[in-house]
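quick one, 75 residues, struct below
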Amino acid sequence: MDWSSIERGWKHYKTSAQERWNRLSQQDVEGTMGKRDELARLVQLAYGLSREETQRHISMWLSKQAANPPFAAHG
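---
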């Protein structure tokens, strides 16, 4: 799965992102509009991670989303 799929299906994936990074407010997560750079910036600030660590966490989350496609992709 690539990040463009996340952006297109952000309404579906934002719940998972909110659960994964629960230090971010719902408004923060929604406000990223699925933009990886914006999500990374907020995660890095909220969790005090390095840029590399942040990208690793986001990549791990992304790989898990392949098993969680949005319903719209099926029809």
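The radius of gyration is 12 Å.
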